[in-house]
Amino acid sequence: MKKRVLMGLAIISMIVVLTSCAKKPQAEIDAANAAIEAARTAEAAAYLPVEFAALQDSLNAVMTAITAKDSKLFKNFNAEAARLAEITTLANTVAANVAARKEEVKTEVSGLLTSIKTVIAENAVLIPKLPRGKEGAAVIEQIKADVATVDAAVAEAQGLFDNGSYMDALNKITAAKEKADGLNAEVKEVLTKARIRF
Q1: pLDDT at 140
Q2: Cα separations (Å) of 188 from 27, 78, 131, 139, 173?
Q3: 93, 51 contact by CB (below 8 A)
Q4: What is the pTM of this model?
Q5: End-to-end Cα distance, the chain
Q6: Helix pair 26-41, 78-126: axis angle to 10 deg
Q7: Is 190 buried (19+), middle (13-18) or exposed (0-12) by CB count in 10 A?
Q8: Torsion of Cα atoms, 138 then 141 then 142 then 148, to 10°
Q9: Each residue of 1-19: pLDDT tens digit?
């Protein structure tokens, strides 16, 4: 009888030890969430979207695994705790890398703004040389409307750049540059066909 009681107590204490050692790794979860939030605040979603999305996906996967294990009697969260520590480290790295990426984008936008202003200036010289005729007037009016659209996009991109929204400025100026280059090529083609020097 005494052996059964001791055996029962040993089993109960073993269950208590196993279940108490397997608490949800809340400290690691909190650290990972804080690190991802710091990366979000640093604008990682805008400047390093692939890396930031991977962080969130990793955290979601670990949280799913923790939830699945949490309902079991015997749980071991060692793998999840280790993965959460990795996510925290990666999130800190991503947050630190945002500044460098921001500088790259800033430099790229600055170069595009300078480049597009050159194309706009050239277009301003070439468009008045376009031949006028029955169809020419309508074409010139369309080109002038497109130039106005480009000018507005450049002004908006410059405003975004001045406010520090470099990624938004990059998206805006890239589209405007493509449009301006297309107009430039179109105008030059028309002038070449009309044998007008430019």
Answers
A1: 83
A2: 65, 67, 12, 14, 22
A3: no
A4: 0.73
A5: 109
A6: 10
A7: buried
A8: 180
A9: 666 655 555 566 555 555 4
Decide: 198 and 126 in contact? Cβ < 8 Å: yes
Q: How many residues are recorded in the chain?
A: 198
Query: Which residues, including other chains, have CB under 8 Å from residue 23's CB and lie 6 or more apart?
Result: 77
Distance CA 126, CA 196 (A): 10
Q: Which two tokens stand for residue 37?
A: 């939030």
Do the beta carbons of residue 38 and residue 92 sit within 8 Å?
yes
CA gap 165, 159 in Å, rounded:
9
Q: Where are the domains of the chain?
A: 10-100, 102-193
- Provide the b/e sequence for 90-107 (b: ≥16 CB within 10 Å): bbbebbebbeebbeebbe
